[in-house]
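Reading group handout, session on sequence-to-structure problems. Before we discuss, look at one worked example. The prompt was deliberately terse, the way you'd type it at a terminal:

> structure TATA box-binding protein-associated factor RNA polymerase I subunit B

The input record follows.
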Amino acid sequence: DFNERCAQCSEVNWGLTDGGRFYCRTCHNVTERTREVVSTDFISNTRVQTISKGSRKQEKNGESSEWYICEGFQLVLKKQAEALEALGVCRQMKDEVLCNFWRRYLQKSRQAYCNRPAGEAVKALSVCDSSTDVGSEPETPSLLHFLSLSESEGDLQTDCSFASSSSRVSGSTSVCSGSVDGSLYLMKNQKEKLRMTMPMTLSFCYMALLWLREPMTLSDLLRFVVEGHIPYFNIFLHFPEKMKLCGLDLKIFCVESWPVYEEVYKKMLELAAFLDLPRFPDITDSCFLHPNMLCMKYLMEANLPDELHNWTCRVVKKICIGEADFLTLVPGNKSTRKVKYDVLAVAVIIVVLKLLFLLDDHYEW
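And the output record:
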């Protein structure tokens, strides 16, 4: 009774997942359209048509299901995006921007949305060398559901189908890790294809905020993390019970130090280049990230006279740092400046103070 064409392949060949959502049997695209349960007979019939879960061994008697490191980071990003939305960021950030960045990362790092030779998964698991990429260990997930607002926590994992990888990896959930690929993940070359880390989740978030030109600088983002408004420390508290963190997983997901501004910023630039993103939306004088806007904010926070804003605007214009070409991020272009908007605005204020009071770093002392 569902005759709409698939948005991905234009076929009309629908089945039903365990969660009651329609999926395309041709390309495995899962829609947000669900079918209402009208009787218990309907439930028993739909079980025959569900996607093969492969390694998705649902827990029995409290046992945990098999899960992969990329699924763990996917959950972290989802929770962080929801926290940012609660802080006032527009809802496009999660479902449209961050979601697409994450999917592109999974494809570029060959963890999902890509085709592989048939024997590559077996080879990757049997020979753990540094030349093997992170995504080689299981078969490609047919679809990683990530950020649907209607999706439950359980669906986040169960809708991710790793085809028959349990038959390839006997006892893959080892005693030293709750995840399937925790030990393999840590054996990879850290510089290869930008392996995900907890600080990189913040790089993803900041990249999405910058794309949307949201009025939140990187220093604001890190402050919200430190104050506990954005999940980062004790992230294991946000994992569902069936995704048990133990052993090597704790080394990957549990952090004991504050996120470092330079590290998060540098990884954001590397991610933008790695994903081959186009030029970001222009930072114009009407945008909150423009130095004139940020200078006004920081002058108020520092309780400095309002009249100083005229001087900061003059300095910005004089040294041509208010132009869109200077402020806008162009990933991969080494000739363009990589602007730290909050740092730049504070620097302009300091320069104005030095000009007005004739300070030269010696006289004031």
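Points for discussion. First: Residues 66-112+193-277 form one domain. Second: Confidence is low (pLDDT under 50) at residues 37-59, 117-175.
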